Amino acid sequence: MALQLTPEQERRIQAVVNAGAYRSAEEALNAALAVVETVAAPDFEGSQDELEALILEGLDSGAPIEADDAFWSRLAMETDRIAAEHGARKPRR
């Protein structure tokens, strides 16, 4: 699957990489997907492979529900909040 990022999405990913949180855009996107998967199934107690299989099953289950701009705005705000929390954490020594 090929995805086309908006300039804003590219800027946000690059900002996270430039801040030193991740070594590459791919690593940052993988981390973002992990957060989305966790938020999608917060009480899931299975393995990562089982969760991915369930997500793929859901994706293959039919046409997606159309989301409005308010949904995407809420999603962006929530991912920004999670990213800010993640970036604010300092490694313990």
The helical percent reads 55-70%
Which residue ranges are poorly predicted, with pLDDT under 50 across at least 5 consecutive positions? Answer: 88-93
Number of strands: 0
Largest sheet: none
**Sheet/helix structural class:** mainly alpha
- C-alpha end-to-end distance: 41 Å
General shape: globular
Number of helices: 4
Q: What integer value in Å does the Rg equal?
A: 15 Å
- Mean pLDDT, nearest integer? 77
User: How much strand content do the residues show?
Assistant: under 5%
What does this 3D model show about the protein?
With 93 residues, the chain is an all-alpha fold. The chain has a domain at 7-51 and 68-87. It contains 4 helices and no strands. The longest helix has 20 residues, at 69-88. The chain is globular. The N and C termini lie far apart (41 Å). Mean pLDDT is 77; it is low at 88-93.
List the topology elements:
Blueprint: H1 7-18, H2 25-40, H3 48-59, H4 69-88
Please name the defining characteristics of this protein.
93 residues, mainly alpha, globular
In short:
The protein is mainly α.
